Amino acid sequence: MEEQTQEKEGIRLLEKGKKGVIRMIFSRFGIILVLLVVQVLFLFGIFYKFRQLAPHYLGLASLFYLIMIVVLVNSDHDATSKITWLIVMVLFPIFGSCLYIYTTVDIGHRALKRRISSIIDDTKQLIPQQKEVLERVEAKSPEVTDLAYYVNRTGCYPVFDHTQVTYYPLGEEMFASMLEELEKAEKFIFLEYFILDEGYMWGRMLDILSGKAKEGVEVRLMYDGTCEFALLPRTYPKKLEALGIRCKVFAPITPFVSTHYNYRDHRKILVIDGKTAFNGGINLADEYINHIDRFGHWKDTGVMLKGDAAASFTLMFLQMWNVNERECSYTPYLQPHAVCPENADSFSGFVMPYGDCPLDDDNVGESVYMDILNRAHDYVYIMTPYMILDGELEKALLFAAQRSVDVRLILPHISDSFVAQALAKTYYRSLLKAGVSIYEYTPGFVHAKVFVSDDVKAVVGTINMDYRSLYHHFECATYLYGAPCIRDIKQDYMDTLEKCQQVTMETIRKEKWYVKLVGNVMKFVAPLL
Description:
CATH architecture of the largest domain: 2-Layer Sandwich
Number of helices: 21
Oligomer: single chain
Structural class: alpha/beta
Shape: globular
Mean pLDDT: 85
């Protein structure tokens, strides 16, 4: 076992300098691509093994292919996904049809789906919606009430008031508050993150967490299994257990090939004593706080909630934690913690934390984004690192701009994924023609996931505008209406615009030919990426 050392930057459980090559090979896109390739090779091997039988069953194969086309056309997939699968089946009739069946049947995740559905059903009433709050929402904005009813039917996501929300325009600013709030913990600390990497950020946090564990504070950590590919050894949870920190890995990668690996835990949640919660795009790695330089300056955002609304993130964490637990405990961690403003009679806005599960029939993340776009009167300002749109979300952007709503998009100028950036650029021309303004953040990489609209609505969370976030990942976000911090979100957006270059038809025309080629070719299979 590697020797634990205490450094100036905090606790480090692993030796430095052993992850460089692996990290380069297994990037975010690389992991997804490798898993898809393995699955494709697996199916191709079966097809190849029985290739000698193909001539004898040519007629049957043609009939099978036609049946699969009918099944696909009548499926509940969005139009863009149907087009992608049709192309795959046209190019590889039998193989493409088998691949479609394999991914649709989703071997490997059925037990997970049943378990999560059961947990959501059993916990829907644990945080009851206060009728008085909903009545106040109705009085302020009936359209927000409609959205609240929709979101709450998919899980336990009530609307809260009298919850203080602080917005952070940079990861390093939120990190400072996270350290401060961790020091105040008295009962429990829950952390759930997509990426965890040793370094200054995690070392400082781990120093506090281990100290709190010694004081008797309950500390639990969950991170996504893809970290075991590139960042952390499989033995890392045991190292944390030695410090008194309970740790779980969500869906660790195993040799068994399964579509289960498509469903990653992309959420970022930190809850302290059930009364303080952090949410946003910021993972637990040094690039997110600009302690190291990856892809230039890293622009990320987040929010801190103090009050009753923090309970929603507590419940989200416990739901995921209890997926493989037989005895589940919730109520001891869900006590109310109201935080009233100085003037209790003043309007402090409404807060609705919510999650999005890829294993149900509700695309909550996309629906919330589309609701903002479709109901906007004056403007919708968006920051997102990835823009790989399905037909519905693209139409919502176009429609909002075409009815004179000021729609602006900020994307990275320096991206962590060449393919994702090339795909995003394929939408530039149609968006510009409709009146959408597009900007690229020249200092580096935008990882923020932010919507702000009409000075009254905003969303800050983990949900990107791409297929993986909208359809395949476990996600979470914070919906705000009328909260004072919305003006801070808008101001940050305007400040960020000053560091961006605007995309025009001329810049599109001058784009490198190979970027256009990659984007246009990969667009055919975008829903599979």
